[in-house]
Design a protein that fits this description.
By secondary structure, this protein is α/β, with parallel strands linked by helices. It is built from 7 helices and 13 strands. The chain has helices at about 25-35, 50-60, 105-110, 130-135, 170-180, 220-235, 240-255; strands at about 1-5, 10-15, 20-25, 40-45, 70, 80-85, 85-95, 115-120, 140-145, 160-165, 185-190, 195-200, 205-210. The strands form 2 sheets. It has a 9-stranded mixed sheet, with helices on both faces. It has a 4-stranded mixed sheet with strand order 3-2-6-7. Helix 5 links the parallel strand 10 and strand 11. Helix 1 (about 25-35) packs across helix 6 and helix 6 (about 220-235) runs antiparallel to helix 7. The longest helix has 15 residues, at about 240-255. It is globular and about 50 Å long.
Length: about 260
């Protein structure tokens, strides 16, 4: 089983705390899966700066294939961050070399050697998703909080769609998950913050709570949950077991400042 993270990566920079770390939805996802013993790769671009070197070193040290992590002259993407208590706040994104990222023919051929790919709305590969699905690659897409901002054309090419919704379980999110599932995914999942998570497979809703721990920083909670859930799916666990594993992995992350 080979899993590819494709697209966005960045450095989260807390200027007021003088802290930073390499991250990104797919970066965090493949790091967690690699730690669980899954063969992973990261396909993206970094700058030829110190931050780019830190990203490459992190991924390589985690055992992730970076043969298609391109290095371009310029700055690695930066997300300026802050904390509201222990909840992360995204302030400003400086794209750097990510602004011109696109997959090469060699990248596309390399991705097709994998069984699963993970990406998000900042990954800049949405137009290629039908090609990857036709090739038989299982597609995991993190829509994050972008509920109601999603091009409907994406969902037919997605197998596992993840959303973040901070208002808890209500009629809107239940209807929304059903709407999204009807467009093609195998399963749609919404993380509900401290209220747990919910998944829908077209027949039933599955609900799971959180694993209560002392929270240091919520950054990476969604990415780690996604990795934990998908690990379960790849092991042929049930949806309920996979939700529980996602919650368990996320609980270990929020106790740390970094997202992995």
């Amino acid at each position: 089983m080979r899993v590819a993270g494709v697209g966005f990566n960045c450095i989260d920079l807390y200027e007021n705390l003088n802290k930073h770390y390499p991250t990104g939805n797919s970066v965090d996802f493949v790091i967690h899966l690699s730690r669980m013993g899954v063969d992973t790769s990261m396909i993206s671009v970094i700058g030829d700066d110190v931050y780019g070197g830190q990203m490459a070193d992190l991924l390589q040290n985690e055992g992730i294939d970076i043969s298609h992590l391109h290095v371009k002259k310029g700055s690695t993407a930066i997300y300026k961050m802050d904390l509201n208590g222990n909840d992360r706040v995204h302030k400003e994104m400086v794209e750097g070399v990510m602004s011109s990222f696109s997959l090469t023919d060699e990248d596309i051929a390399f991705i097709k050697e994998h069984d699963v790919l993970h990406t998000n709305l900042s990954g800049k590969i949405m137009g290629l998703l039908p090609q990857f699905k036709e090739h038989g690659i299982l597609t995991v897409f993190d829509f994050s909080v972008r509920v109601n901002e999603i091009p409907e054309s994406i969902l037919p090419s997605v197998d596992y769609a993840f959303f973040s919704y901070d208002k808890g379980e209500d009629e809107f999110i239940l209807d929304y998950l059903k709407w999204a599932k009807d467009l093609g995914p195998k399963v749609v999942i919404a993380t509900l913050g401290e209220k747990g998570s919910i998944a829908y497979d077209g027949e039933s809703y599955y609900r799971e709570g959180i694993v209560k721990v002392e929270v240091v920083n919520t950054v990476g909670a969604g990415d780690s949950f996604c990795a934990g859930f998908m690990y379960g799916i790849l092991q042929n666990w049930s949806i309920q077991e996979s939700l529980h594993h996602g919650a368990k992995v996320a609980s270990q992350v929020v106790m740390k400042f970094e997202p992995y």
